[in-house]
């Protein structure tokens, strides 16, 4: 079986004052610092827009649930 490496970058903002661009840029820098860029078979960016982490349960955050689905 051919095993693939999957990298998932996840961002979540609950207001317009927050920036997904900054979050995903930070994720990219982290992956680069860990030597995890350039050799992935797949890279996925998942973003939840206008989603409160304190008001919504995890199961109510669609992209977070998609991320978890990639882990199992």
Automatic annotation (TrEMBL):
Domain Resolvase/invertase-type recombinase catalytic stretches: 8-70
InterPro entries: Resolv_N (IPR006119), Resolvase-like_N_sf (IPR036162)
One term of GO molecular function: DNA binding
Alphabetical list of SUPFAM superfamilies matching this protein: Resolvase-like
Pfam family, one: Resolvase
Protein name: Resolvase/invertase-type recombinase catalytic domain-containing protein
Organism for this UniProt entry: Alkalicoccobacillus plakortidis
């Amino acid at each position: 079986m051919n095993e693939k490496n999957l990298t998932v970058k996840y961002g979540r903002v609950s207001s317009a004052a927050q920036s997904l661009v900054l979050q995903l840029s930070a994720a990219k820098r982290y992956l680069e610092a860990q030597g995890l860029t350039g050799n992935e078979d797949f890279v996925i960016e998942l973003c939840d827009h206008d989603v409160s982490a304190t008001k919504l349960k995890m199961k109510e955050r669609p992209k977070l649930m998609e991320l978890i689905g990639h882990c199992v």
